[in-house]
Specification:
The complex is a heterodimer of chains A (348) and B (595). Chain A folds into two domains: 226 residues, P-loop containing nucleotide triphosphate hydrolases (Rossmann fold); 106 residues, OB fold (Dihydrolipoamide Acetyltransferase, E2P). In chain A, 24% of the residues lie in helices and 37% in strands. Chain A has eight helices and 20 strands. Chain A has a six-stranded mixed β-sheet, sandwiched between helices. A five-stranded antiparallel β-sheet of chain A has the order 13-12-11-14-20, with no helix packed on it. A five-stranded antiparallel β-sheet of chain A has the order 15-19-16-17-18, with no helix packed on it. In chain A, β17 and β18 form a beta hairpin. Chain A starts with a strand and ends with a strand. Chain B is mostly helical and 595 residues long. Chain B folds into two domains: 267 residues, MetI-like fold, CATH 1.10.3720.10; 255 residues, Orthogonal Bundle (MetI-like fold), CATH 1.10.3720. Chain B has a two-stranded parallel sheet with strand order 1-2. In chain B, strands 3-4 form a two-stranded antiparallel sheet. In chain B, α6 packs across α15, α13 packs across α19 and α17 runs parallel beside α20. The two termini of chain B are 28 Å apart. Classes of the chains: A alpha+beta (348), B mainly alpha (595). The interface between A and B is medium-sized, with 35 and 30 residues.
Chain lengths: 348, 595
């Protein structure tokens, strides 16, 4: 287990009568990369501002290794923050931007130069020292901002949607590079994003936020396999959510769903909301299919193809690999549900 | 219209992400106001209060009668009416010429554009007396054009009567204030996102519809602010009207001067001042309100994104022709002034029929000689030393007072404690008041208030720099505040997170970004002080004249030598101020990043 690092306990913050954060608590161990995932306006950036000390929480505590940071101003927290709009200093060149934090820490000229060189190589910009930051491309500016926030070796680096402004290709490449750079430096980091792919690629653990509250915390596979709430399931793109009534018959649980009654391995009773998780559903499973449906539409998405299947008047969505046999529109398909994996009970 | 602009502003505010406020909103910001407010109370409000009390009470017939007398007088209404009339005409002409120019400079990139911008902005900083002398050298009875006409057509008297006409006043005012339109509207225009217009064109608007429905409404605050500023300057114009308009064209300002200096009728002067003050105050408050809309940090785009090249042949010819007209208006009077100061022309003797220009340095040599050897006639070199000393004192005073005020004003209301925000809101217009107060009124106030106890500065050498600081103060604050405000809060936050203490944030982020604005403000203060005439004319001690006072003395005396010396002195003053301007421009070009 990694040594403890940052702890947030019961953070509340409101702006005027708008509740921005309502009881945010989570921890980041040293060397860990945690992603804050959520839609825009859910309070991710405010959480970062509070951790950085740019905002004060109304309630709750920010602590590092158990010591409260309430009275530590931003410049003494030893944290780094990479802003969404990068906030490069327009009057300084690339080298001066990157060296800014080092200068604040009174690095000797020799050390400063060495660290600067190291950083430029790390982000792949050697030779850019004297360039005017206003003439750089978006990707280059992003790298300068990353180098600037990494240079003083912050004990915690926060990244606020740093790739938001870039196009998709560049973003996918940079996410991967970023993961490499951060793990290579054993950098403790919080990464804010609204893109679940970015969060899953980068983070050791993901904190899913919604409307100023935390919905779920867990490693990416856990978030994907066992989304805890309707919000989380929908946010990561799982849409087959149905109301159900659970009944115990003997030592088995049966779920009464609008599409039919299906056996389930979990011990449940009474009304529940259930996600039909694609990992436990087989379409056209041949023998043993429990439910029949009709394909009503298909949309091609590259490697995957999404088909909507109507069962008993209920519309479900499933992805197929495009190179497999694809059922045509109007075609009848059978669905079979793995009693262990197919049903995930969701919190409202 | 207003609504649309307001909404615009609102969304822009939101976008700039300023929800993140500073940690504890501190009331310490209030301390920044201490010196500026004290200064304004002592040297602005107190003198104005004295004018008020004199205007109301010192007359024999009691409080009301001065007003009644004054307002009953048709003469006074004629003066006030003419003041408004000439200011309106001047402003309209300035806009007519300035708006197309602003468009050209804002939207197109062409060779020599930098030079055009520099040349066009030179007149603005020129002291009124240099301008007056320049037009005199070009179109006056001894000016180039009359000399040429007299020699070509064998005339015995100058054929063109320019001096002492309304035309002279209007032309000089346009000459003077054109830069305001070019700069304020042009700058704003050049930073306007061209994609907004492109979006309109994609939606089916043609070029004129785009101009009328999109660009014009977006520019309106800039145009209105520029027009108001021009109007205020024309309304309170003094030197130009005194020298070029002559006795027939007295505006309020000139009338106050005559009543004070020649007739020593302080109560009437005070009454006139109140009238002047009331009308300009309203305009100034309006101007402050409008100019606030011009700072939109994130909506502005670096110029290189917004500018096109002139492509078609026709547009090139049109643009060239227009710029030629602009420049000939802006440059020829000053060129005539310089040339005339080095040449002894035939016209200096009335009867001469041939121009025989003869190079001479006589006018300059004579500057160090005290011709009259009289007590109150210091040689012009003394005036230069006096002017320099006053100007440097003004720079120091204006920056010392202007920086804290601009600093306080630049804080976003959300970032500061409510009391500080309220103070800012109330004090901002107060700072701009001197701008809406004519120089002559300020001088009059100093004479009445500071000439006797409890604050007797009549004989003190700080009196003139104090007045100059008052005149320069609004300019200093106005040029500093937008620069301070445009430093995005994010940059400060980024620096703080990187380990910069609040002091270091100021030193490494705010100061370098503000450095240019400080330099600009300092040069503004310097040139304003060097050229200030209105207030100085009333309060300067005769034995310590400034350069403009000296020029006025020379211009108002007959004789070729006096005329020549006036031009020589004007040329020197012009070069000093032009030098300052060039320094600003060079610094601007060297600056990295256009934010």
């Amino acid at each position: 287990m990694n040594p403890p690092g940052l702890q947030l306990t019961g953070i509340h913050k409101s702006f005027g009568d708008k509740q921005a954060l309502q009881g945010i608590s989570f921890e980041v161990s040293q060397g860990e990369i945690v992603a804050l995932l959520g839609p825009s306006g859910c309070g991710k950036s405010t959480t970062l501002a509070i951790i950085a000390g740019l905002e004060a929480p109304d309630q709750g505590q920010v602590a590092w290794q158990g010591a409260s940071l309430a009275n530590t101003p931003p410049n003494q927290r030893g944290f780094g923050l990479m802003f969404q709009d990068l906030a490069l200093f327009p009057h300084l060149n690339v080298a001066e931007n990157i060296a800014f934090g080092l200068r604040m820490k009174n690095y000797s000229p020799a050390n400063l130069k060495a660290r600067l060189k190291e950083m430029l190589e790390l982000v792949g910009l050697p030779g850019f020292e004297g360039r005017d930051v206003n003439t750089l491309s978006g990707g280059e500016q992003q790298r300068v901002a990353l180098a600037r926030s990494l240079a003083p070796s912050p004990r915690l680096l926060m990244l606020d949607e740093p790739l938001g402004a870039l196009d998709r290709n560049l973003r996918e490449r940079l996410v991967f590079e970023l993961r490499q750079i951060l793990t290579q430096m054993h950098q403790t980091a919080i990464y804010v994003t609204h893109d679940q792919e970015e969060a899953f690629t980068l983070a050791d653990r993901v904190v899913v936020m919604n409307a100023g509250m935390i919905e779920q915390i867990g490693p990416p596979p856990e978030i994907y396999r066992q989304p805890a709430s309707i919000f989380v399931a929908k946010f990561i793109g799982l849409t087959n959510i149905l109301p159900a009534h659970a009944r115990q018959i003997g030592d088995r649980t049966y779920l009464e769903l609008p599409i039919g009654e299906l056996p389930c391995d979990q011990k449940l009773d009474g009304p529940v909301t259930v996600l039909l998780h694609p990992q436990g559903v087989k379409v056209n499973g041949g023998t043993g299919s429990q439910v029949e449906g009709v394909v009503t539409s298909r949309s091609f998405r590259g490697n995957l193809c999404r088909a909507t299947i109507e069962v008993n008047g209920i519309t479900l969505e499933f992805d197929f690999f495009s190179h497999d046999h694809l059922p045509g529109i109007g075609e009848k398909v059978g669905l079979s549900f793995d009693p262990r994996l197919a049903f995930q009970v969701l919190r409202r | 219209m207003d609504q649309r602009l307001d909404r615009n502003r609102f969304t822009l505010k939101e976008k700039s992400g300023q929800r993140c406020s500073q940690r504890p909103p501190s009331t310490r910001m209030l301390l920044l106001w201490l010196a500026p407010v004290l200064f304004l109370i002592l040297f602005y409000l107190y003198p104005l209060g004295s004018i008020l009390s004199v205007g109301l009470s010192r007359s024999l017939g009691g409080a009301i009668s001065t007003f009644r007398q004054a307002f009953a007088s048709a003469y006074l209404w004629r003066v006030a009416g003419f003041t408004v009339w000439q200011a309106t005409l001047s402003t309209a002409l300035t806009l007519l010429l300035g708006l197309p120019g602003a468009f050209l400079l804002a939207r197109y990139e062409f060779r020599g554009k930098g030079l055009v911008q520099v040349l066009a902005s030179i007149p603005f900083v020129m002291p009124t007396l240099v301008v007056a002398a320049g037009f005199n050298a070009l179109l006056g009875p001894r000016g180039w054009i009359n000399l040429a006409a007299m020699s070509w057509f064998n005339l015995s008297a100058p054929p063109i009567h320019f001096v002492n006409t309304l035309t002279a006043i209007l032309v000089a005012h346009v000459f003077y204030n054109l830069t305001i339109v070019l700069r304020m509207v042009g700058d704003f225009w050049s930073h306007l996102d061209p994609r907004i217009s492109q979006a309109a064109q994609v939606l089916g608007a043609n070029r004129w519809q785009t101009l009328w429905r999109i660009t014009f409404p977006l520019l309106l605050p800039a145009i209105a602010a520029a027009a108001l500023l021009v109007f205020i300057f024309d309304f309170t114009s003094f030197g130009v009207i005194l020298v070029l308009g002559g006795p027939r064209y007295a505006t309020l300002e000139v009338e106050i001067y005559y009543q004070t200096i020649s007739l020593f009728n302080l109560p009437l002067a005070a009454t006139l001042s109140l009238l002047q003050l009331g009308s300009t105050l309203g305009l100034t408050v309006l101007y402050t309100h409008l100019s606030r809309r011009l700072t939109r940090p994130l909506s502005l785009h670096p110029q290189r994104q917004t500018q096109r090249r002139l492509v078609s042949g026709r547009s090139r010819i049109l643009a060239t022709a227009f710029i030629m007209i602009l420049l000939s208006l802006q440059i020829t009077p000053l060129a005539a002034l310089v040339a005339r100061s080095f040449l002894r022309a035939g016209g200096d003797r009335r009867a001469a029929s041939v121009i025989a220009p003869q190079f001479t340095l006589q006018y300059y040599r004579e500057l160090s000689i005290n011709q009259r050897a009289a007590l109150f006639y210091a040689p012009p070199t003394t005036a230069m030393a006096v002017s320099l000393a006053y100007a440097l004192s003004t720079v120091i005073l204006a920056l010392a007072l202007g920086l804290p005020a601009a600093w306080a004003l630049s804080r976003e209301p959300q970032q500061s404690a409510p009391i500080v925000a309220t103070a800012n809101k109330l004090l901002d217009p107060l700072l701009m008041l001197p701008l809406g107060t004519s120089a002559v009124t300020l001088g009059l106030g100093f004479i009445i208030a500071l000439g006797c106890p409890p604050l007797n500065l009549r004989a003190s050498p700080v009196l003139v720099p104090l007045a100059h600081t008052l005149v320069a103060f609004p300019f200093v604050v106005r040029s500093l505040t937008p620069a301070l405000r445009s430093i995005r809060p994010r940059l400060r936050q980024a620096a703080a997170v990187l380990g910069a203490s609040p002091g270091q944030v100021i030193w490494y982020i705010d100061l370098p970004l503000v450095g240019r604005a400080v330099l600009v403000a300092a040069i503004f203060a310097f040139t304003i002080s060097m050229g200030e005439f209105g207030a100085t004319a009333l309060i300067a001690r005769p034995e310590y004249p400034t350069i403009p006072i000296m020029i006025y003395r020379f211009l108002s005396q007959p004789g070729a030598l006096n005329y020549g010396q006036a031009l020589a002195l004007s040329t020197i003053l012009m070069l000093v101020t032009a030098g300052g301007m060039l320094a600003i421009e060079r610094f601007r070009i060297a600056e990295v990043g256009e934010f």
